[in-house]
Design a protein that fits this description.
Shape: elongated
Number of domains: 3
CATH topology of the largest domain: Jelly Rolls
Largest sheet: 7 strands, antiparallel
Order of helices and strands: EHEEEEEEEEHEEHEEEEEEEEEEEHEEE
Strand content: 35-45%
Number of strands: 25
């Protein structure tokens, strides 16, 4: 933990820092906020300073991650190549595209002239279709329900005659016209921190900066607390990818699950970067969930995928996604790391303390009389 001074204090202020209240009655007060402001008539070291560490995630105004990732391009699948050495059709499960008005565009190559694309919802009902002309030139799409599957095909006769067609740079975007291509992007990733800055001064223009670096063995921290006064970092959340896990499912059910052996079975805390998260077992398409009921099944992470009843199909689907979805959950046994304490002495009069984290800090300080 290193102290970096934003400004050099005057000799007088340094002396005021050391001005105790010897022989006088002191009362401990508490304050919270970020920033947290208070006034005191004694210059003493803080007796308490707790910084909550929360996952850093920009939901862009939504209450949960946008079902299709939140980026401009809602199409999460790959390029399509039909004919020649490839098959005549391609069936692709994608991240859900919500109902609404969109514009489809792509780059089409090949000598086939009869081909098409069909879009299906979770009930296997066709929501929209595009013919060769619409695919080649671009077309508006009106989706009355959410799309989870796209089926591409070419004419059988042309396929037999070794014709080919390919669609690249596929884009499905909100609106009624084409804009420049952008790849599918998850814009709600869960970020962590490896340290933080503490700021203290009489106001937010004249302050000291304390740079805190977490121990290397703590890695990236996604959630927990930092006790600044005694130098204790408690890591409470763990981030994991959803790919390449031993998913199972209930017989005949669309509910898939994987056991998280180090999860707190009494906590339903769950952060998700791609799919909406709920408490308990989800029942909405492409939604994750977990419970805090205190049972053995409370260690399970659940995923609802309506059109699949085989855990093998589900594993293949999630492992084939172009991105790797992640979730954060609460650990049954938090990890504790020790670092150098930071001593922050209050100023006589007004004080403001804040951090570059996104939680509400709690401090304890003395006041005379």
């Amino acid at each position: 933990m290193n102290l970096l001074l934003h400004k050099d204090w005057s000799t007088l202020r340094k002396l005021l820092f050391l001005n105790g209240a010897v022989g006088e009655s002191l009362t401990e007060y508490e304050a919270e906020g970020n920033p947290v402001s208070f006034n005191t008539n004694v210059a003493k070291a803080l007796t308490g300073f707790t910084v909550p560490l929360l996952p850093v995630q920009d939901l862009h105004g939504q209450s949960s991650p946008y079902p299709a990732g939140g980026g401009k391009n809602k199409y999460s699948g790959g390029n399509v190549s039909l004919g020649g050495s490839n098959s005549r059709t391609k069936n692709e499960t994608i991240v859900e595209i919500p109902s609404g008005s969109y514009y489809f565009s792509c780059e089409k190559t090949g000598d086939a002239t009869t081909f098409g694309i069909q879009l299906f919802d979770s009930n296997n009902q066709m929501v929209a279709q595009l013919n060769a002309s619409q695919i080649s030139s671009g077309s508006s799409l009106s989706l009355s329900s959410a799309v989870v599957r796209i089926y591409s095909y070419m004419d059988q006769t042309e396929f037999d005659n070794n014709k080919t067609v390919s669609f690249t740079n596929i884009q499905i975007e909100s609106g009624s016209s084409k804009t420049d291509y952008a790849p599918y992007e998850n814009i709600c990733p869960i970020s962590g921190i490896t340290g933080l800055n503490i700021y203290h001064g009489a106001d937010q223009t004249d302050y000291d900066t304390y740079a805190v670096t977490f121990p290397a063995e703590a890695g990236t921290v996604y959630g927990g607390t930092l006790d600044v006064v005694n130098g204790t970092l408690t890591v409470e959340l763990k981030k994991i990818p959803l790919k390449n896990r031993s998913w199972s499912n209930y017989s005949g059910n669309k509910l898939f699950y994987v056991s998280l052996t180090d999860k707190d079975e009494y906590s339903s805390t769950l952060y998700s970067d791609c799919f909406p998260a709920v408490v308990g077992q989800p029942r909405d398409e492409q939604t994750v969930g977990t419970s805090g009921a205190g049972t053995s099944s409370s260690k399970n992470l659940y995923f609802y995928k309506l059109e699949m009843t085989s855990f093998t199909d589900f594993r293949n689907w999630i492992n084939a996604l172009d991105y790797d979805p992640h979730v954060c959950f609460k650990l049954a046994e938090p990890q504790v790391f020790h670092l150098d304490p930071v001593t922050i002495s209050t100023l006589l009069g007004d004080n403001v303390i804040w951090t570059d984290t996104n939680g509400t800090n709690e401090i304890k300080y003395f006041k005379k009389g």
